[in-house]
Amino acid sequence: MTEAKSSLPEGVVFLALTREGYALARRLASALPGAEVHGHAPRVGDADTVFSDLGAHLRDLFTHGHPIVGLCAAGILIRALAPALCHKAREPSVVALAEDGGAAVPLLGGHRGGNALATFLADQTGGVAAVTTAGELRLGLALDIPPPGWRLANREIAKTVTAALLAEEKVALRCNVPDGGWLTGAGLEFHDDALLSIRIGADATPPADGELLFHPPVLALGVGCERQTEPAELEALVTKTLAEHDLSPLAVACVCSIDLKSDEAAVHALAESLGVPARFFDATALEAQVPRLQTPSAAVFRETGCHGVCEGAALAAAGEGSELVIPKAKSARATCALALAASLLDAHAIGAPRGELAVIGIGPGAEDWRTPEASAALSRADDVVGYDLYFDLVAETTARTQRHTFPMGKEEERARAALDL
User: Fold this and answer.
1) Which residues form the domain of 192?
2) Is 139 among the domain residues?
3) Is residue 383 domain-shared with residue 397, that is, in the same domain?
């Protein structure tokens, strides 16, 4: 059965080392919207992107989060990417595909689209998808590694519940939110009269014995605060407010505010404490939520250009059909509000993030002599600002970024340009 494209990772990059591999990669890429084919010079010179250093290019794509399909031996991918491996829950999928399409082997990120991608590729080529995870093979999902944004409250019993499902024992499913996502759509058979159960909810009720508890990303937390508010005050307000309404912080998808607060330490400290992104909206986007605000304020409008920061941000983030479940709550210098979304939230598709600036040195020039921190910063960057001749030393690493070059003697200008981006 062909894998549904909705379950496939986006932005797949095919790496072709030979002309034969390139032909297959080009055919497969045409079946995946947004996919690209990168070719190894000089054999594959007409690809979307051409590279010469396979290891550096692989690591660059990987650290940027691009799913990778390498038309080459699995060992090549494993050895090249080994230095870049650090966090299995955040890394993109990597699939090794035989040059003749006979086998597709998910090497990394199997539960985050790699297995689905390998299955899709094998369906396209008539080959075999070498999926090796038992839960994925039998159940079509892995309970211990939920999709991005989902939180598992008690991972320690995931294996027990998985084993029960594999043994076709009875397991119950209880969903207390509008969208149960991957679990309710998995096609598994559940039973109400079971000793083991799975619960999907945004509430703070602890899991019962034998209950596996998932918190989906369905809550959008909007916040506001006075300039230089202490992070502890904002965090205490949010903690108290969630507890009073029996809502779990693990169901919060993101912390949102007006873009005027994008440099506010308290907002970013709160997001870090909750383990979610901080996202920001301009005043126009927040003002569009006025008909849904419960506590609009003319005073706030005079200061910010919108009638409500925390409520507006929560509603804007939660989207159409959402409900303001906690209206504005206040402390001496901070506010917060919470909205429940009608569907699962992708935090990285909400509003805009705060930018990040890294100042690095590139060493003598060769990648082997560059610090890992500098290489990682270059790989993550959307924009790179620097002395024009230095770009020749990092040409391959910065090939996919926006370059801002300055001549010698323009140090102040390029520093200002970096800060203004």
Assistant:
1) 151-215
2) no
3) yes
Higher pLDDT, 8 or 135: 8
DSSP string, 170-190: -EEEEE-SS--HHHHTS----
Backbone angles phi, psi at 42, to 5 degrees: -95, 0
Domain count, the chain: 4
Decide: 144 and 158 in contact? Cβ < 8 Å: yes
Cα dihedral 18, 22, 23, 24, rounded to 10, equals: 110
Question: What are the structure tokens assigned to 397, written together?
Answer: 């690493």
Print burial letters for 263-272: b (CB count within 10 Å at least 16), e (below 16).
ebebbbbbbe
pLDDT per position as a tens digit, 45-59: 788 889 999 999 999
Tokens of 243: 């507890």
For residue 360, tell me if it sits in a domain: no
Calculate the dihedral angle through the C-alpha atoms of 158, 130, 150, 32, rounding to the nearest 10 degrees: -170
Please state, in angstroms and rounded to a whole number, the distance separating the CA atoms of residues 41 and 71: 15
43 lies in the same domain as 65: yes
Place of tokens 């709160």: 270
How sure is the predictor about 89, in pLDDT bands with cuts at 50, 70 and 90?
low
Q: Domain end: 69, 100, 132, which one?
A: 132
CA distances, 97 to each of 6, 10, 108, 141, 400 (Å) = 21, 18, 13, 22, 24
What is d(CA 24, CA 39) in angstroms, rounded to the nearest whole number? 12
Residue 1: predicted pLDDT:
39
* DSSP symbol at 352: B
- The answer to whether 219 and 339 are in contact (CB under 8 A) is yes
Tell me, what's the pLDDT at 7? 64
Q: Please, what sign has the CA dihedral across residues 378, 379, 385, 386?
A: positive
Tens-place pLDDT, residues 313-364: 999 999 999 999 999 999 999 999 999 999 999 998 999 998 888 888 888 7
Q: Transcribe 387-405 into DSSP letters.
A: EGGGGGGGTTTTTTSEEEE
What CA–CA distance (Å, rounded) separates 284 from 66? 33
For residue 137, being part of any structural domain is answered with no
